[in-house]
Amino acid sequence: MTKALILTVCIALTAGTTLATVPVTDQYLPALGHAFGSAVNGVQPWWRGDVWIFNPSATQSATVTIYLLLRQANPNPTSQVVTVAPGDTLYLPDVILNTFGNNNLFAGLRFVSLPNPVLVTAESYDANVTVVNKGQGTAGQFFAGIPAGIALGAGDSTDMPGFDQDETGTSGLFRSNLAVVETTGNPVDYTVSVYNGTGTLVGTKAYSLDVRQVGQINTVITDVTGSTGTNERLHISVTGGTGKLIAVGSRIDNRTGDPSTIDMISIHNWGLFEGVVLDAATGTAVDGGIQLQISDQVLINYDALGDLCTASSNGSSTGDVSPDGGISNVPIAGDGTFAFSVTIPYADPTTGTTIFTTTWTLNGTRATDGIWSGTLASNTTGGSGANAGCNGVSTQNWRAAWTAGS
Fold it and tell me: Is-contact 248 179, C-beta < 8 A?
């Protein structure tokens, strides 16, 4: 395939957008229940979980399969199928009891929707809260459906600040729990490290999850360190196995039973990433840009403009790196790296005659903060006459940040 020479193009680096609640086709709620909780001062909490499923499509109904994930391996979990009409919101009160018929059970839920994505939100709450002069009420926390696409795999890690465990068990002001769920149907190993407010490591412990297993680590600070602590940060690292995990925390006020949600810092390893090409010597942005579409550890679409030739009769020009419109999949290794090369002949836009051929080599790696970076090298041959100066090798750096989900 011969491509016409492309004139100067520059794409600005866009900062990664903070993940908000978004409609997706595969998502998880790691911790809901219909069961008694830990008694505090003789008062037994009654934990319940309500779910809302919103179908944002104006034309298509959504068929949603809800899987019940127990605190064990779940190779074939129990499921229920619901349908949400276009624009409707389905409310599932006390979902563990009313939808699945289970009493005295804590579990996670997985939502798979077809053909279109849905928005899932939930509340986990204690229904046995006595309010002075008002009678019995509730206290609870909000959960958003967590996309399977942001689950952590081998080599990934995340941080979760805001955990407190100031005394043993429920005797203090606060206690904190951690819930995790495996999302791929494969075992996964992980470690939980606890850091205090000054960033000092105070303890590390290894854990594992089986196939789509939900796990809950109650009083997680004590479980990891053997002690207590306030203003603690959890660092979760996936250390082995082919599975992936999602984590969510709860900081519970022992005086009222009221919990607050602690979300994991999301590493965007799926969706659309866009960025700039940089001069290797100075680090300044130059002509060119890059766009990556990533899904399930595969680069499924890519487009890049790199330094093709600065000595042609057309002036400074860039070249399209991706063959066939970038539809050829490129696998991403477990350590978050990828590499590929492609050779492309380029043509004069007026005559259609090939004026030189370039072999592009694109390398990339994902940092712990989710930013992609790497090198983009062009090796140009066959240039003659006014294009003879294009022959040779040029290597540039690039950086790309998450701009949108897919």
Answer: yes
Residue 343, number of CB atoms within 10 A of its CB: 11
Instruction: List per-residue pLDDT tens for the chain, 406 residues long.
Output: 444 443 333 333 333 333 456 788 999 999 999 998 877 777 778 899 999 999 999 999 999 999 999 999 999 999 999 999 999 999 999 999 999 999 999 999 999 998 889 999 999 998 887 777 777 778 788 999 998 888 988 888 889 999 999 999 889 999 999 999 999 999 999 999 999 999 999 999 999 999 999 999 999 999 999 999 999 999 999 999 999 999 999 999 988 888 899 998 876 767 788 888 887 788 887 777 888 888 767 888 777 776 666 554 444 455 556 555 555 688 888 778 899 888 888 888 788 888 888 888 889 998 877 789 999 888 989 988 888 888 888 888 999 988 866 4
Task: Quickly tell me which residue has 């009420």 as its tokens.
Answer: 137
**CATH architecture label of 26-263:** Sandwich (2.60)
Could you tell me the pTM of the whole model? 0.72
Q: Distance between CA atoms of 240 and 53, rounded to whole angstroms?
A: 34
At 241 the three-state DSSP class reads: strand
Number of residues assigned to the chain: 406
Strand 337-347 and strand 3-4: pairing? parallel
Domain residues of the chain, as ranges?
3-16+270-404, 26-263
104: helix, coil or strand?
coil
Distance CA(32)–CA(361), nearest Å, equals 48
| Residue 247 identity | A
Percentages helix, strand, coil for the chain (3-state, rounded to 5) are 5, 55, 35
Q: How many CA atoms lie within 13 A of 215 on its CB side?
A: 23
Written as six digits, the tokens of 62 are 């959504």
